[in-house]
Structures are given as structure tokens and as C-alpha cells.
Design a protein that fits this description.
The chain is an alpha+beta fold and 364 residues long. It is built from eight helices and 20 strands. The radius of gyration is 21 Å and the shape is globular.
Length: 364
């Protein structure tokens, strides 16, 4: 099992570890509820170095990404980040990626960094190389960099203590390379929690110092180190999908409700298959639901309507925000409308639930 460069630091903090997509990562450092509330009210720091980081650079970089990513990467300004999908020829999702367009170097070469799901890094690396022209350089930066995520309403104040570049000036989905701890760190205004947040990509030899510096800067702001259990609740409350649970190579972006991340005005691998599916009608759709009675939905549980099985749960948790069980699942398309009454299988019981609009978490 792979370990991040911060593994020993997590052990010193007595984190409970777990396996996520082949990596040993912190499940929790303290009480999961405490970590959750720290992110919603103050700040939390995550080690997400298990995610892949692949650099794509050169004269043909834009053309390559235009061909394989569903978003229009040619229109991305330098210093911006976009969420996009990579599909195969049949329209199924190979991965959901964050595309960062970095500032061009002195040679004026286009530079991108793709953040992939941990389980898909090797697959996407091969996919890129398979479709790249000779004027594209593809470099796997995963093992040479660390990836940290600072999330929460006080994250900007914490970052301001570490750099002269004011965090508040960094707009949503903006990316900058800025000096931190005597090195250049890629800082993006991105995250997976629904709160204000920043992600840092730094050389591995600076990872421990960066972790300590962020924790020290946030010590008076209520910051906590946070694990993947907390992160899963935060992302699910926002209706954000997880690869391997809610999307994979057996699902298309249209079934998953990710239409807004597809630009059908340009060409990309899988476009024709998706247009054909769109024209023929979607048979199953991903929907969010809330339990109407006590219980916590689990991935793999059946979804029913009038004693007929209509779908399956892909993600579920107990929402601290709603104080109810919430989840995502694929259902027969005609049952996917908000207000639809359904039942969710929880520990051999069928609990009443209803389909709702996403996200579950709405700031007041």
C-alpha cells in the first residue's frame, strides 16, 4: 500500500489510518464531528497527496487536452482551474479531473497540471501518452510533490500569515505560483468541501514544513488536522461525486448529472457516444435523497418505490447539517425528480425517503 510523504507525521499525531484507492491515508485525527465542524466554522487541513499530479506541457498541450477533456481547455486563462471529465470512446467516465493552467515559462510553453483520482493516475498517464503528439511532454509529478488542502471560512486569514500575496485577492478557481517557506508552491482557490479553501502543491522535501507552518498559523483560528471520513461527509453534503462510488467506467457524465461540465460545441473523445445517448434518453439518473426516519444509508443499498427496486445507493452518511441520513444513488430516470417518495434499504429495513435538490448543504 502506498503512503504519502506525511505518513510519519500522521502517525505521530496518532491518526487512525485507512485505505483509499490503494493509499494509506488518515481516516480521522480526532472526533469526526469535531473535524467536520472545524471546517464549517473555522478551518481544517487535509493531506490529499494520494491524488495524482500529471504535468502536460509543450506546443501541443492545448490540443491534447481539448481532445480528451470534456471542458474547453483552450479557453482557460493562465492561472485558472476547471473541473472536467475524461471519457473513453463509448462515453463512460475514465476519471474526473481538476485541470490547472499554469503560467507559461520563459519559453512560452503551455503548461497544465491535472489532478487525478488516486486510483486512476496510472490509467490517465497512459491515456495521455497514447493520444499525445510529439510536441507534448507528459510528466508524472505525483511522487515528487505533496498536495495539501486548507478548507474553511478562516482559511484566507491563515494563508495571509504565510505569504505577502493576499489570499483574499485570489478569486475562486484561480491558480498562482507563490513563494512559501523559501520555495515556490502552486496555490489554487479550490476544494472539495463547499467552504472557502486553498490547495497547495509543493515539493516533497517541503511537505512537512508546510504542514507545520499552516497548522501553526491556524493555531489561534481553531484549525484541526482532518481525515478522509470528515472530507467524505463534507463533499457529500455538497452533492460532489466520488470516483469509484458515484462515477466510474460503467457510468456516463449524463447519467451522473454532470452535463454542465461538458462542452458539446467542441470535439472530444466520447462526444458522439454521449450525443447518441442524449438523443435516445437517459434510462438512469443520479439523484440525492434524504431519509425521513432514523438511519444511515450505505453504498450498495437498494432503492425502492412501491415495493419495486428502482436503483442503488452509491454514497451515504449522517449529515451533521441536516441531522438526517443523506445519500446519492442511481434510480430509474422517471423517479429522479425532487419530491419523489422512495424507500432506502438500511440494515435489512426499508426506510422512507424522498428525492431532493442538491446540494444538501446550503449556507444561511
Amino acid at each position: 500500500m502506498k503512503q504519502t510523504v506525511l505518513h510519519q507525521k500522521h502517525e505521530l499525531l496518532k491518526a487512525k489510518m485507512t485505505d483509499v484507492q490503494g493509499w494509506q491515508v488518515p481516516l480521522q485525527f480526532s472526533d469526526v464531528q469535531d473535524e467536520y465542524h472545524a471546517v464549517r466554522a473555522a478551518a481544517g487541513l487535509f493531506d490529499i497527496s494520494c491524488l495524482g499530479r500529471i504535468e502536460v506541457r509543450g506546443a501541443g498541450a492545448v490540443s491534447l487536452l481539448q481532445n480528451i477533456v470534456t471542458r474547453n481547455t483552450a479557453r482557460m486563462a493562465e492561472g485558472s482551474a476547471h473541473f472536467g471529465l475524461i471519457c473513453n470512446e463509448t462515453g463512460f467516465v475514465l476519471d474526473a479531473v481538476l485541470v490547472l493552467r499554469l503560467a507559461a515559462e520563459k519559453t512560452s510553453q503551455d503548461r497544465f497540471l491535472l489532478s487525478t483520482n488516486a486510483v486512476n493516475t496510472e490509467k490517465i498517464l497512459l491515456w495521455l501518452k497514447q493520444h499525445a503528439s510529439a510536441d507534448v511532454e507528459i510528466i508524472d509529478r505525483t511522487l515528487f510533490t505533496a498536495h495539501l488542502s486548507l478548507q474553511g471560512p478562516l482559511s484566507g486569514q491563515i494563508l495571509d500569515k504565510l505569504t505577502s500575496h493576499h489570499a483574499k485577492k485570489l478569486k475562486l478557481q484561480a491558480v498562482r505560483e507563490m513563494p512559501l517557506l523559501d520555495t515556490h508552491v502552486i496555490v489554487s482557490r479550490t476544494g472539495y468541501t463547499g467552504e472557502q479553501g486553498y490547495e497547495f502543491i509543493a515539493p516533497v522535501d517541503k511537505a512537512g514544513a508546510l504542514w507545520d507552518a499552516v497548522m501553526d498559523a491556524g493555531s489561534g483560528e481553531g484549525i484541526l488536522p482532518c481525515g478522509f471520513a470528515c472530507r467524505d461527509i463534507l463533499r457529500l453534503e455538497m452533492g460532489y461525486l466520488m470516483y469509484g462510488n458515484d462515477i466510474d467506467e460503467s457510468r456516463t457524465p449524463l447519467e451522473a448529472g454532470l452535463d454542465s461540465f461538458i462542452d458539446f460545441k467542441k470535439e472530444f473523445i466520447g462526444k458522439e457516444a454521449l450525443l447518441k445517448l442524449k438523443a435516445g434518453g437517459i434510462k438512469e439518473k443520479l439523484a440525492g435523497f434524504v431519509l425521513l426516519d432514523k438511519g444511515q444509508p450505505k453504498s450498495g443499498g437498494s432503492i425502492f418505490s412501491e415495493n419495486r427496486e428502482i436503483g442503488v445507493v452509491t454514497s451515504g452518511c449522517q449529515s451533521p447539517h441536516l441531522r438526517k441520513g443523506i445519500g446519492l444513488g442511481y434510480v430509474v430516470a422517471r423517479y429522479s425528480q425532487p419530491g419523489q417518495e422512495i424507500e432506502i434499504e438500511v440494515r435489512d429495513r426499508e426506510i422512507a425517503a424522498k428525492i431532493v435538490d442538491l446540494p444538501f448543504y446550503k449556507k444561511k
